[in-house]
Amino acid sequence: MPEQPRIERPHADRIQSERPMIEIRNVTRSYGAFKALDDASLTIREGEFFSLLGPSGCGKTTLLRMIAGFDNPTSGSIAVGGQSMEGIPANRRPTNMVFQSYAIFPHLNVEQNVAYGLKRLKLQGGEEKRRVEEALGQVSLTGLGKRLATELSGGQRQRVALGRALVMRPKVLLLDEPLSALDKKLREQMQVELRRLQQAVGITFVLVTHDQYEALAMSDRIAVMFGGKIAQVASPKEIYQRPVNRQVADFLGGMNFVKAEIVEENGASLIVDTLGFGRIKTDKPKAFVRNGGAATLGIRPERLRVLWDNATAKFEVAGKVVERHYFGEITHLIVEIPGLEKPLSVTETNDFGADDIPVGTPIRLAYDPEALVAMAD
Amino acid sequence: MTVAAEGSPPLRMTRARRNALLRSEPVQGFALISPTFLYALILLVLPIMVVIAHSFWTQHYLTIDRTFTLENYRVALTEPIYRDLLWRSLYISLTVSLFTVVLAYPIAYFISFHGGRHKSLWLFLITIPFWTSYLLRVMSWKVILGYNGVLNSGLMGLGIIDEPSTALLYNSSAVIITLTHAWAAFAILPIFVSLEKVDRTLVEAATDLGDGPLRSFLRVTLPLSAPGIISAALIVMIPTVGDYVTPKLVGGKDGVMIANAIQAQFGKAANWPLGAALSVTTMLIVSLMAGATVLIIRTLQRMAR
Asked: Closest approach of chain A CAs to the CA of B25, in angstroms?
């Protein structure tokens, strides 16, 4: 993408091990005829922040609970740190979990909650106290050790749950929608903190979430799941920009779909004809299966830019604004393009006055053909 | 209130104020509890006041001498017979509550944790013995424990004993066995309710942090169900001390409890003041014992951490 500056995300250059930490092989979990998880295979690397993303009922929590040992695969195998987890109960697995409801012990104070798992280890010479203090520091709860669980705010409870798991120094930390109960502002703050914490401790984090922004913001890699199957495993950028199918594309945010006819298919690229965008050359998706002569292209609303006054672009389409929705820093424009069966959704920042474009105005949109990606239906 | 007066400004104001008063939450609350409150006041508080008053008086045949005296309390606390009866009552009630709670807990735990969809059915089954009268249930224990009873014939039939044992009925053990059974449902229900309130995720969290089933039960489930254990223990303990039907029916000479003595003072012995003093003493001691039980369970709960 030539117009995009090459600024890497700060954690992208972190040396990440390629060694597998969790290996999930052909795991199926059936409840009678219903398959909560259907032949899922996945490798999560050591030290990685990995997210399982999908709508409710897609099997992501089932998979997480099977890694933790609260549920067992009907068939298939799960290994953590090279060791098969078959027959190993949850209390002897090298994983710890942050529960969605936090599951803070209500009869214990913060310190006792954090020390809960250590008590059994009978650590010598103040080691337990030292580790509890360290964990409380990691989750910014220093000084709140004597508070009762009932006296904590939602965010603080979340930190206790996190500290309680981290103090065990697990190989893998499992997080089951840990931020879903927090309000928007706190959630965004915790996303940043969780990410920082993960880099500081270097433990493999596996996060379950239905919030695509959360997954995009925090993860090294994401697995998108639908109906018990893993649809795509890739980096956030790859998943967002090159979704393998319409379902993934839709789930990750707005996407304009354009029907196309395949003119030529060769090696790594496709040449297609579209009604609104004309002839386009695009990268062929990795697992592209040709389904007759038809194909679907997708372009994200923010990859379409409004051309003001007499500005021109190498690639542009012309249409008419039919709806306008104001969202503060951005405006959504719905633009009808002659020849396209569905109007295009365009997201434009409000710096240049997109929020003032009257409905009915003829408009021209610039796009980068590379932003039009081919995908399975 | 006359028709003419209606609509005059001052009246409208008082009516508005009255409506506001009727709508205020504390007033509504008091209104709701007042029937029960009056009932309790007349039938519970007043009789207790009368009993307390009598305990400081003296009876001469049919007349009551209303001079203040502590003589009744001296007798109640120092006469060996009353002291023994009181101790026995406390011992029986403590033992019964301990047994009942210990036996009820696993049942409540089973229903709550493994009852699945049939929880209501299980609870319903537990209440079945209560469809018959309390007296019948006590009497049926007589049939089981008696000289020619079910237990004796069974043991003899198996050749374990040669002649019927007389040690089963008419002693304090018989009272303990009968009451433990009689109170079972009253202990199961509060324990069940408190177990239902234990968030199952907490047990999972304990497991996740390395606890096996027994350890997570002792560190999480048991302490969190302590309120149920406390109420079960109190529900059983307090009425047991004052029970006089069961000892009368299955207790025999060795199973007599303080309530039988109190009944005798108010009845045949016709010494109301002494009966009253015994009642008040028992009430105070039961309150102390109940308080001590709560404290002990709370301490155990804290130690489980």
From this structure: 27
Flag whether B140 is in a domain: yes
Same domain, yes or no: B108 and B141:
yes
The complex's ipTM works out to 0.83
Distances (CA, A) of A267 to A286, A293, B206: 10, 17, 54
- pLDDT score, position A17: 67
Angstroms from B202 CA to nearest CA on chain A: 5
Round to whole Å and give the CA distance between B215 and B223. 12
Q: Indicate if B124 and B205 belong to the same structural domain.
A: yes
* Alpha-carbon gap, residue A9 to A11, rounded angstroms: 6
Q: How would residue B12 be classed by pLDDT, with cut points 50, 70 and 90?
A: low
Fold classification of A17-246 (topology level): Rossmann fold (3.40.50)
Give per-residue pLDDT as tens, B184-237. 999 999 999 999 999 999 999 999 999 999 999 999 999 999 999 999 999 999
Give residue B29's domain range: 9-54
Å between B210 CA and nearest CA of chain A: 4
In chain A, where the domains are located: 17-246, 254-375
- The pLDDT assigned to A182 comes to 86
Partners of A92 on chain B (C-beta within 8 Å) are 210
Question: Who among B201, B212, B223 is closest to A101 (CB)?
Answer: B201
Q: How far is CA A102 from the centre of its chain?
A: 21
Contact B212 A91 (CB under 8 A): yes
**pLDDT range class, residue A170, cuts 50, 70, 90:** very high
